[in-house]
Specification:
Elements lengths: L6 H4 L10 E3 L13 H5 L2 E4 L4 E6 L2 E2 L7 E2 L2 H10 L19
Amino acid sequence: MNPDDPLLRILACPLDKGPLHLLPPAPGADREEGTGGRAAREASLYNPRLRRRYPIVDGIPQLLPSSGEQVPDEEHEELLTRMSPAPPSSAHRPGTPGTAS
């Protein structure tokens, strides 16, 4: 799964039905031990609102509520920096030139 995959636009967290963010594998995670473990070595989907991570196994997102794992507070900040940018929004931004207010 890549950040441009149209599937990301329709996938939602099974618990709060909100959007999920693609987390690429952590750089050097194959050598990392301790927190993160297998989840850090593979891409996953992250819900920062609930601090839950859902694995992607063989390219298939595992979106059952029981598949998600709770992320500790200290790891949450690191995951926020790894999150792929959100897809561009078509919503109007105030102060955008050339648009009616």
